[in-house]
Amino acid sequence: xxxLEKLISIASPSLCEAMPDSISVKLPGFAQLLKLRxxxxxxxxxxxxFPAKDAGGVLGLECWNALSGWRQKYLxxxxxxxxxxAHDLFGGQFxxxxxxxxxxxxxxxxxxxxxxxxxxxADRLLLNYSEDTGWPLAHEWQSLNRxxxxxxxxxPKQPFILGGDYIVQNLVPVEAEEAxxxxxxxxxxxxxxxxxxxVTLSGWL
Length: 205
Hints:
It is built from six helices and eight strands, in the order H-H-E-E-H-E-E-E-E-H-H-E-E-H. It is an alpha+beta fold. It has one domain (3-190). Helix 1 (3-9) packs across helix 4 (118-133).
């Protein structure tokens, strides 16, 4: 069993049955992944892989990556050749080009190489799922509250970059696209502010 097959074996059923005529993700093997499991959640919904088309409140790949949506606020940070195909508990995006997978932090705008293939991506997730998906907090938050909907992410009442703690008491559920727009507001508010200069945010959550 490959590492990607292992990941799929512990994931939810497909989020969507409908397949598009073409797939925007050019990374080798991604079209086959969608045929095996067309969008799914894993690690108690800490990880969500987007379906090919909108389903059950979860946006499909095309809508999620529309440059007229939340991504227009990150055009300088995340190049258009990358397609976001999954995200972690806080909305950190896994994005693929034709040659690599990166992890995009919407709070800071940082983009880091994550894997060179889907198999490597799955292997790294299986080895580091607690840190890379936010699973421990997903588990704890849901134990204390309710199941997290796949179309929701957890955002901090006090942003992490402004000193917020990674604890369940600091987390609230927000619809995923709205969450990305809120992250973008923080990113654009602080990216040009010199270190040490106070930052004031209004209407964060």
